[in-house]
């Protein structure tokens, strides 16, 4: 990962640029990084706040030989890599909230957005989009954010070297992806669970009109969240917003 890196000053979205490059045949491991995004994309059609000069916005092209239904496993490569990079560059304690938010002190510092091009039997390519709030200050966050957000600098109380963070993150991504290809999903799932903020907690998952409440038992091989609900029923959710309930 990172043998080819396209660095851009300003883009609409690094995911869109990477997706176009992948369609034109860009090799596995190609990375697009930008200083500023004018149309940063979040999950569920939301916007990702992407001011210039302070954060990391990057997208990685992967071409794993897997069935499309296993593609969500690869999101965990990026969330574990972000956790790893934060642990290696700061003294903060990050956790992962399913599916892929990385939180520090209960507030979101990073978001991940994976996009896929696939036929029924085969993944053509995946784009892993990674956004990390690094040196953004309080005034740069919009007031109406859905979830409380923060940056590494706010939480660590010092400026973080963006380039060094990017380097460490790419190293982690590379090692985790290589391990995934060699050993499969299980070791990655274990690492994800070890950093999970939701494991064993009671959560409320909202997806449109649908609300499921239960205790988190783990994640399955399709990236779904497995919950134990009232009456001993087990439920699996594949998408939605998780709120951790006070116990
Ligand atoms: C989320 O939590 O909603 C996901 C946010 C993902 C943001 C990153 S920034 C780099 C890449 N390009 C985008 O347009 N989005 C992702």
UniProtKB/TrEMBL annotation:
Acts both as a biotin--[acetyl-CoA-carboxylase] ligase and a repressor. It comes from Geotalea uraniireducens. The keyword Phosphoprotein does not apply. It catalyses: biotin + L-lysyl-[protein] + ATP = N(6)-biotinyl-L-lysyl-[protein] + AMP + diphosphate + H(+). The lineage of its organism: Bacteria, Pseudomonadati, Thermodesulfobacteriota, Desulfuromonadia, Geobacterales. Its EC number is 6.3.4.15. Belongs to the biotin--protein ligase family. It is an enzyme of class 6 (ligase). The keyword Endoplasmic reticulum does not apply. Biotin binds at residues 13-15, 37, 108. GO terms for molecular function: ligase activity. Keywords: ATP-binding, Biotin, DNA-binding, Ligase, Nucleotide-binding, Repressor, Transcription, Transcription regulation. It comes from the Bacteria. Residues 1-181 form the BPL/LPL catalytic domain. This is Bifunctional ligase/repressor BirA.
């Amino acid at each position: 990962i990172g043998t080819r890196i396209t660095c851009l000053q300003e883009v609409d979205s690094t995911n869109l640029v990477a997706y176009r490059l992948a369609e034109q045949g860009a090799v596995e491991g190609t990375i697009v990084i930008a200083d500023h995004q004018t149309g940063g994309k979040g999950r569920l059609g939301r916007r990702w706040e992407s001011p210039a000069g302070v954060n990391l916005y990057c997208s990685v092209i992967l071409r794993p030989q897997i069935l499309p239904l296993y593609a969500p496993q690869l999101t965990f490569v990026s969330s574990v890599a972000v956790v790893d990079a934060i642990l290696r560059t700061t003294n903060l304690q990050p956790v992962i909230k399913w599916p892929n938010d990385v939180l520090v002190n209960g507030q979101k510092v990073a978001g991940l957005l994976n996009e896929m091009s696939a036929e029924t039997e085969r993944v053509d390519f995946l784009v892993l989009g990674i956004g990390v709030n690094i040196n953004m200050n309080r005034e740069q966050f919009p007031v109406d954010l859905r979830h409380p957000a923060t940056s590494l600098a706010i939480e660590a109380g010092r400026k973080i070297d963006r380039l060094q963070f990017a380097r460490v993150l790419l190293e982690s991504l590379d090692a985790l992806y290589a391990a995934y290809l060699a050993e499969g999903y299980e070791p990655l799932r274990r690492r994800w669970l070890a950093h999970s903020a939701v494991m064993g907690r009671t959560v409320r998952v909202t997806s449109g009109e649908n609300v499921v409440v239960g205790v988190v038992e783990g994640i399955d091989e399709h990236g779904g969240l497995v919950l134990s609900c009232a009456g001993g029923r087990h439920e699996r959710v594949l998408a939605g917003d998780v709120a951790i309930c006070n116990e």
